[in-house]
Amino acid sequence: MTRSIPMTMLLLWAGSAVAGQPSQTPTPAALWKEECAACHMAYPARLLPAESWKAIMAGLKSHFGTDATVDAPAAAAIERFLVANAGMRAVRSTGGPVPLRITTSPWFIREHREVAASTWKRPEIKSPSNCTACHTGAESNNFSDDLSGTSGGRRR
Amino acid sequence: MTHLIPLALATAALSIGGAVSAAAPREFLSRFENAARSADASFVPTAARGAAFFTAKHATAWSCSSCHTPDPKAQGKHAATGKLIQPLAPAAQPDRLTDPAKVDKWFRRNCSDVLNRECTPREKADVVAWLLSIR
């Protein structure tokens, strides 16, 4: 019996070494990307204030119409990551509801005021939440105004 | 002693196969099938029933196929966000049905969206049987 435990450990170690993948906890940033980007672009934390992220993480059971629940340790790590990197822009008057949508933030509406309603409705855009349709660098956190690589002019 | 060696070998074999928690697709069928059999010993997973379940609407506006398409070898598209979804059949997407945490997570979420409840072991066994039947 005494020999069996070291043998188990040796085999576990050998298996892990062969696979080249020692088990390790993913970083909060990796968890954020993995979980959020499973269904949509992983929106950068700076696009909403901390209180919005807290409200979003508290409501994943019904996240814009879908169940987006993650296990408790991952949810806690993702929330900490979002809050630590959250935006500082004021998004509501004191006492108002906590905003949950990036696309209804005053700054978002202002930044996109030149985009025509017909442009939003194009099949390849479909929704203001589809950042990458126009901001091709959005996945790399680049939301510059240079949309020359896209199929659309802003005013059409 | 005797029971420890098979356990260690199995663990090592799984590790050699890839990620630490990796499992073979067929193990999920056994798992759901065994769970269903504990309630009904006569249960046999049936691919055709899995296919019908997958494409039917149940309690909401969405079926499984609303996002995954009715073809498990085809790329799907999230019905709300448009995000591309890789095929579900292991024959078309080799990392499907290999990670227990992912399998549990997505059954939990997606059954909630489509049925407003968890899927039963019978339903999961049928769907997995169907996915494994795709060549």
Structure report:
The complex is a heterodimer of chains A (156) and B (135). Chain A is mainly alpha-helical. Chain A folds into 2 domains: 28-96, Orthogonal Bundle (Cytochrome Bc1 Complex, Chain D, domain 2); 112-156, no CATH class. Chain A is 37% helix and 0% strand. The longest helix of chain A has 16 residues, at 4-19. The termini of chain A are far apart. Chain B has 135 residues and is mainly α. Chain B has a single domain (21-133), classed as Orthogonal Bundle (Cytochrome Bc1 Complex, Chain D, domain 2), CATH 1.10.760. Chain B is 51% helix and 3% strand. Chain B is built from 6 helices and 2 strands. Chain B has helices spanning 4-16, 25-37, 47-55, 64-68, 100-115, 121-133, and strands at residues 76-77, 84-85. In chain B, strands 1-2 form a two-stranded antiparallel sheet. The model of chain B is unreliable at 4-19 (pLDDT under 50). Classes of the chains: A mainly alpha (156), B mainly alpha (135). The interface between A and B is medium-sized, with 32 and 28 residues.
